[in-house]
Amino acid sequence: MPAERSDVGDADDIVPGTVIVRETRRGQFQQEIIAGPHRLLADESTDVGGLDSGPGPYDLLLAALGACTAMTLRLYADRKKLPLTRTIVRLRHNRIYATDCAECETKEGMIDRIERIITLEGALDAGQRAQLIDIANKCPVHRTLKSEIDIRTVEEPV
Questions:
Q1: Alpha carbon 22 to chain centroid distance?
Q2: 38 and 18 Cβ atoms separated by less than 8 Å
Q3: Distance from C-alpha of 108 to C-alpha of 98, rounded to nearest angstrom
């Protein structure tokens, strides 16, 4: 697996399904993200010491959920021949007190809350709209975020 090390060069060298994030050393927080042939920057806003050259980590998380939601809805609507002309997903992340969440298992301290507002454009009836909202909750990223996640961290020798 030497192609996945921090000295990775071309996107062609990366094992499919692997995302690489590495410091650019421009600014305190700027990171280059390599996902297959795609490259983008992540950063923090200037008010916390970043260069504001790309979305922050939570923005990227929200973008993943929003993109997956819209893609899932498009796939479903096309398969069922629903008159969905366009989907817009707006997302916000914040921290709330667990006591403010009646349906949450955690009852003490703070928890993360993602608010997802979905706009469904098209001549859809109430039943179709309800179906699509139900499907939105089944998008793969939504299901991942709601499930138990096992993240294993290992240090790769240099």
A1: 18
A2: no
A3: 5
pLDDT of 137 strictly over 50: yes
Inform me whether the pLDDT recorded for 139 exceeds 80. Answer: yes
3-state secondary structure of 79: helix
Answer whether 79's CB lies under 8 Å from 88's CB.
Answer: no
13 phi/psi in degrees, rounded to 5: -80, -10
Q: What is the pLDDT of residues 68-111, one digit of tens each?
A: 999 999 999 999 999 999 999 999 999 877 777 777 677 777 78
Give the whole-angstrom CA distance, residue 142 versus residue 149.
Answer: 12
CB contact set of 135 (below 8 Å; sequence gap of 6+): 72, 73, 76
For the segment 61-71, the average pLDDT, to the nearest whole number, is 98
Do residues 44 and 56 lie in contact, with contact meaning Cβ atoms separated by under 8 Å?
yes
